Amino acid sequence: MPRYLIRRLGQALLVMAGVVALTFVITRMVPGDPAVAYAGPKATPEQLAEVRERFGLDEPLWVQLGAYVTDLLSGDWQTSLHTRRPVLEDLYHAFPASLELVGAGLVIAVVTGIPVGVLAARFKGRLPDFSVRLTSMLAVSLPVFWLALALQTVFASHLGWFPVAGEYDSALDTTSPLTLWTNITLVDALITGNWPIFTSTLSHLVLPALVVAAYPAGVIAQMVRATLIEEASQDHARMERALGFRETTILTRFALRPALNPVLSLIALVFAYAIVNGFLVEAVFNWPGLGRYAVNAISHSDTPAVAGVTLLVALVYVLANLVVDLLQGVVDPRARAR
Amino acid sequence: MRWHKRLLVAGIAGVVALAASACAGGQVRGAGGTPQPSTGQESTAATTTENTAENTAENDATFVYAPNLDVVTDWDPATSYSNEIIALANIYEGLTRYNAQTKEVDPLLATEWTSGDDGKLWTFKLRQGVKFHTGGTLDAEAAKKAIERTMKAGGGAAYIWDAVDTIETPDASTLTFKLKYAAPMDLITSSGYAAHIYDADALEENAEDVEDGKLDAGTGPYTIDTWQKGQETELTLKAFEDYWGGWQPEQYKKVAFRVTPEITTAWQLLRSGEVGFVQRLNPQLFEQAGMTEGVQAKQAPSFQNLLVLFNTADGPLKDVRIRRALQHAIDYDGLVAALKGAGQKASGLVPPGLLGHTAGLEPKQDLEKAQELLQDAGYGPDNPELKLTLTYAQGDEDQKLLVTLLTAALKQVNIDLQARAMAWNAQWDQGKKGGQDIFVMYWYPDYADPYSWFLNVFRSADDVQFNLSYLKDKEIDAAIDGLPRLTATDQLAAHQAYADLQKKIIDEQAAVAVPYVQTYQRALSADVQGYVDNPAYPNVVFFHDLKPAG
């Protein structure tokens, strides 16, 4: 096990080193002068020179790379050209909101995806199976931007059941201010017992979380269906049938547990994917998360911020993969040998 | 069973680690980061009781503005040079304010002014009884300190004060500017950037609080309530009770800026009544806004126009006949029609609402004339093909439209236009080296004066910055240099000089084509009265002017 652990950690570090090099290239190789991007189009040559010196833009490239890596490790992820604050600080405000949204989306996806997958497997080849497969296909293939706009127009704008956009009613900031502990609004509202913000966030969360949930729910449902059907044809299922268990019982009580193993690793992968996929959802619902930050950064040619988002997302990907691999190593000894 | 438990433990460990890593240590949101008791209603409680003290018809509503970009990047009124103008223009005031409808300068912190010595001496009389948000009183000494601090900081648009030699304060209510060269100080003091009068001492002493948006030192009707960078509701303002202009019960005492980058989302928020003003709509939504109950759509020309700059120094366009042919090849009417209201046809270099705007300079497409000119220059349908390069802004749909129409039109006269969309930095870098035949860009002034179109874009320069037509003409330079003095002393003559210059640059030199002036397309809630678009202060809503309808 330790050797497996070390090998996987080494691989993860290698990937991160690659991403760091890539983000460095992004920040230095974009056409145009980064000093101009910071100082604005009408800056004087003196202002530009000052900016160049402040950010070390006049040093040779390899010195800059060295400084970049040292800075990253010491927690200095450069200063955003647009917000003019440390990128890490910006991310630390934006990322928790994304986690909140993606977390809620995944909960919905798991809670709906697994039972629906079981349902499809139980009635394989019949109407429930057919409709599940059709809806999950739709959920996976509908463009998330379109889905977000459609839900917003119908349920928020026309029916008025949910708020149009935002994380919570900002007027609550003055009537019942929220004390931050985790920066995840819903969690903070819960642990500090701030019910007005909790309920407001919950109602704001429904529509975007549903959109985020669509893709993972579809994938999970299909995966559960497929693995369950495979599991139900195994020897143990045959024996359970011979013992007189009903088909539903066989699926839920005996086949589901082994079938969930691959679903688990799928969820972790889908989690990282959902964060990026959530960028568009955040744009439509004005969710103050990583996506909105990234879109803002890109539209301002804010390369340090773009690099910061890239690094963070890469880190989440690598971590999610690492955790899954290690977990599978714990669960399934065969994985360690792979 | 066992792995379930392990998973659970791992999951909990993960959540705990995450929470710990994201731990914000008990800060209170909306209070500028200062911990407050969880009941913490002091700030709002204070304002609401003040507001509701006497009058029952008090307007308790918050006016919500939906900008499409972050609001504040720089809180210092000396160096601010960005989007925050939409907030700062309501917090800070200058000596004067430009009125785009009358094309004149209106009094603000100064009540009257005179100029002498051929536009090199300006005397402003200050308004009495003006209080700073910091508690101090405005007098000539304070105004002088503010302007000198801005000049010294030298950031943002501080260059507007370049003409100032010395500032004197003969008495507490008189401010005298002695200039190095003639300049229209009444226009300059109306600038939306760098012309704010503020309590300079308070800003210096509380620099950190100012940077964090906890304190401002203006004289305007509103003052900062809360600022949370990166949050959806980034900024809220509250009424400054001692405002010299006074308060009517129906005026909005609270303002919020709710950052909404997605246009369709902003539109939905407006329809559902959650916001009161949307800064920018696209033509489709704008048309819809005009037909939607509860919403009013407003349209006004901006001070920003599109310039198609021809390379007069190098390449085939050195030949003025080809430049003229290109001017004739642009489908101006088709372009404006395709913009569906996002732009209106330009008449010369100076947009309407500014001194020097001249009617009757509207261009028209004339392909026959273009062909004739090209034939003359040895190109055109029966001659060798002419290859031209053009650069324009990446991601700008309006510019792309121009390029598409122009490419098609030029094809008919045997010109192959190779257009390249580029990020501004890259486009500009290449432009400074003269790397293209045609350079497309927007231009706008920093204050309500057309001078910058001429000084920055068409005055000859060895070190090219914005002179991207590379025009070098001594006569034009001399005329440009005479503009500030004329503007300061003789508006009529200045107008004539601007008109003549435009004819020279556009008709004689054919250095540029100006297809259209951008139009602002705003939408606001139907129950709001008093909104007037003032392009001198782009995207600014003067909230003190607004009141609920009925």
The value of Rg of chain A in angstroms is 24 Å
Largest sheet of chain B: 12 strands, mixed
Distance between the termini of chain A: 12 Å
Mean pLDDT of chain B: 87
The N- and C-terminal alpha carbons of chain B lie at a distance of 69 Å
Give the total of beta strands of chain A.
Answer: 1
Described by strand count, sense and barrel closure, the largest sheet of chain A is: none
CA-atom Rg of chain B in angstroms: 27 Å
Strand content of chain A: under 5%
Secondary structure class of chain B reads alpha+beta
Estimated helix fraction of chain A: over 70%
Strand share of the residues of chain B?
Answer: 15-25%
Low-confidence regions of chain B: 13-24, 32-56
Element-by-element helix/strand order of chain A: HHHHHHHHEHHHHHHH
Shape type of chain B: globular
What does this entry look like structurally?
The complex is a heterodimer of chains A (338) and B (550). Chain A contains 15 helices and one strand. Chain A has helices at 2-29, 34-39, 45-54, 61-73, 87-122, 127-141, 144-158, 172-175, 185-191, 195-231, 235-242, 247-285, 290-299, 303-331, 333-337, and one strand at residues 179-180. In chain A, helix 12 runs parallel beside helix 13 (290-299) and helix 12 packs antiparallel against helix 14. With 550 residues, chain B is of the alpha+beta class. In chain B, strand 5 (110-116) and strand 6 form a beta hairpin. Chain B is globular and about 75 Å long. Chains A and B meet through helix 5, helix 7, helix 8, strand 1 and helix 12 of A and helix 1, strand 1, helix 8 and helix 14 of B. Strand 1 of chain A pairs antiparallel with strand 1 (27-28) of chain B, so a sheet runs across the interface.
